[in-house]
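User: Here's a protein and a ligand (pyridoxal-5'-phosphate). What would the complex look like?
Assistant: Let me lay out the input and then the predicted complex.
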Amino acid sequence: MGHYHGRIVSTCHTAKRLQRYGESVFATWSRLALKHGAVNLGQGFPDFDGPPEVIESAHRAMLDGHNQYAPMPGIQPLREAIAADFETTTGVQPCVDHDITVTSGCTEAIAASMLGLLNPGDEVIVFEPFYDSYPATIAMAGGVMKHVTTRPPDFGIDLEAVEDQITTRTRAILLNTPHNPTGHVATQEELRGLAALCQKHDLIAICDEVYDRMVFEGDHVSLASLPGMYERTITLRSLAKSFSLTGWKIGWSIAPAPLTDAIRAAHQFLTYAVSTPLQHGAVTALHMGDDYYTTLRQDYLHRRDLLCNGLAQVGLKVCRPAGTYFVMCDHTAFGHQSSESFCQHLVEQIGVAGIPPGSFYMNPEDGRTLVRFAFCKTDAVLEEAISRLSRLQHH
Ligand SMILES: Cc1ncc(COP(=O)(O)O)c(C=O)c1O
């Protein structure tokens, strides 16, 4: 049974493999934020615009007539810019023609990787809490998700637990670093351990690196840059976070030709090609240079500390993130039995929206004590949120 424009309907048309995923947690809490006039620190989209020169260049591309289908793998200048960016950040030079595919955001790259690679019953190991599209896309592909739980306060990777999950059906390990929602940045030791497991068990690594430019402590290192790893790794990145352009949905995959063939086998029928003028804008973005990334990092470091200090002052136990623009906090000092109940109280009574992370776990109970906030917001918005949160009462 469900509600449809006020009417009760009894039929569910959603395919069985997708029924359990329901409405995305971000849609639910953004709707509640709007309804209650709350400051929205839920969904991870910036409340400021991307670089004007990037936006202008997409605009110019439209006026210059770049409005028809782009080539299936992406326009040549963008694939060249992606290859150069990858070489600068990893030291590995990918083939512009055979290794790069431009996708509709990293989201499509994740789906195309799963649909292109997995045969029914193939297993993929993910770390939880996980980005919510991972289990859904693995399910769409008929794969089976195995998981390894990471725990506060540092959410590090237990390599023995990873090896315990490997079976003869394991096809890939899906690593997100810097990690949403925990802010964990994979250490050299973790990366070396994962690389060794991939090589020992002949696994593919799928690396979601959409937050690669937002690291505050330590350095982001791509698994693909470790010895022997490029040939078995798919690296996924996006314009969304690094250029505050989440609405453009421009992402890409970088992988050696045999893996790229698998991704393209799915991509050509999922979207075929991605918005042409926005791909021209993306070329301008990737040519912005180091100063742009330095400023981006400094700005986010400032926002991280502003929000984390405020949250700590209010009495939340803060797991200060080493990367990304999210922070996980323990809310148990406020006496709520679940993160849903705490977030409900926040959005209705305090006027701030966060995300209860239950849907990022196989067993939502594992996220019961936690709440996620996003700090991709202007200082004024973060300060308003902190001021409202100061009304929270300790239990
Ligand atoms: C870990 C992770 N992967 C992928 C995405 C989606 O990226 P895009 O907007 O490029 O589809 C997000 C967005 O929040 C994310 O947090």
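Summary: The radius of gyration is 21 Å.
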